[in-house]
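ok so for the tutorial part 2 we go from a plain amino acid sequence to predicted structure tokens. step 1 is just haveing the sequence, like this:
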Amino acid sequence: MSTLKFAISVPDVGLRFVEDPPAVQMERPSAGVFVLAPAHLPERDKTRHQIVIVQPDDPRLTDCRHLTDLMSLLVAGQATGLAVALRDGTEAADEVRREAHRHGVPLLTIGPEPAKWMCLHRALTDDHHSRMQRTADLHSQLIEQLRHLGRAEGTQRIVSWLASVSDAEVTLTTARGTKVAAAPENAARATAPAREQIAELAAAGKGRSAALDLPDGRQMRLFTVGSTSPAPVLAVTCHSFCVEVSAALARVLDLLAARLALEEAERRQSRLQSGEHVVREAVFSLLMAGQVNAAKSAAVGLDPGTLDAGIARTFILKVPPPQRPPIVQQCHDEIGTKAVITACPTHPDRIVILVPSTIGDIEARTLSTLVTHTRTAPHRFLGGSALHTLDETPTAYQDAARALTVAERLPGRVHCYVTEVQLAYVLDQQHASTWATHLLHPLLELPESRREPLLATLRLGLVFPPAATARMLGTHRNTAARRMTEAAALLGVDLQDVWQRALVGLALQVRAETAHLRPDADAPVLADILDTPEVRRWAHEFLGRLDTDRRPLRETLTAWMRAKTRIEDTAQLLGLNPATVRIHLRSAEELLQRRLLTNTACTTPEGYVVPGAHDLVLAFFVVEGTTPARKEILSGSR
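step 2 — the prediction. this is what the tokens look like for a chain of 638 residues:
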């Protein structure tokens, strides 16, 4: 688009500034002329990028209030400036000067002859069309550059093209200052005076730029390229930057960012071809074949200790086949090397993720990442298995495949396989629904806008660490923590106590399964709900898995619950070494398929809250009557 600087250069028109303007006003865009009719206030969009011409005797220039309204309209409508039609030898009124200055409106004068106004308007529109044509030509050339983007010389072609159309010296350097491309060949010498600025911009990274005036009168502009930090820097040196060249520069930065991203992808692909993806596929294939020791040996090349946990959960992420290679790499980058991530060797649309269960928060981080990848695009589905030992990887894969079948029929497109009957399913549905509704009543009676965020946070916060809960909800961890505290206060429970967390978790699960039932008026006692043959059978079968180990795992777990899941306090109660307690818990994890160790739990100042212990404390209560619960929590009454 033309500028005010061009407008005042049009001959035989007599357009000039009343006072010497700042440089920024000279560059204001100007698309044409708008003549202000007497006693008529135009709409704002009519004055956009227009030089507004007004007669000197117009009442809006002589009345203070009307003058202020006019200036405000010009500012709001983004007018180029106000031109007063004056004969030679006359000047704009002082009040008009003051108001224009106060509002930042460029004030000009022009001859009173309408023919001059038309001449100016034609000159502006012709120049505008000419500039549009030049811009279109530049865009056509840019599209031509885009066709060559994927070629090996793509970066140099783009730099050479920019140098030719802008008559400039152009240099692209890496974040470390190494030359990537230059045009002409010796253009890098021009950047010598700006080495410090280039280094600062490279370190600052994405979206930074700078401008310098060189001693020889030329200008230099510096731009970071891409979204990385530190970032490559493009330096362009020339005598002046016209509007078209500035627009081309913006497009070139996008092209260079795409080219550099493509080069990075090619480097990653090269690393994959060097054998990393082959190793991951080999590890998975060995596990599927039952060769656990060989798989552990192969996994050392990925990350030592990856398979030392002995138990893992398997996920299958189903994606359209063309999307699989980049998503495999993205999952690897986001989850890390502690998980085995590979393209399924038997299905072209599946990605297999095998996640050790006792390495930090890797399981929660993996689930959060996979759920995000599943729900950010259609035609993606996620199935997960229960915990399995490594020699049961084929079974785990089948579990995940069955879960994937279910996920393809669910709105959320995510499902984890359940290998056992859960407690909520064996309770008397009517009595359990009534108990759960009474327990959760303070939450359920809240307005929906407040209730749903609290319930969603509570469901996840009982199972996952705070950071993982926040990531899955898309909130800040402080927000998730505040909601948990608020929910606990409303329910009158202490969520740092594993028993009370287990009861709240059970109530949430029961409510989800029995939402279609109408609760009774009187709240039943939980102890009565749990005193049925079906529940006792569930508890005995659940804890019966511990009896396959000759060590006193039940005794250890009972003491561990009395110690509020603190390892050191449990060791003191039993007179054992803390390492022995951890070994017992690890064995119990394997048998119960529950996470019990504190390195995957939520730590609090009072102790450790372990989501995997919820079913455990309920089963012990059913079998042995062991519970630290308060009466009102057991009954569900408020």
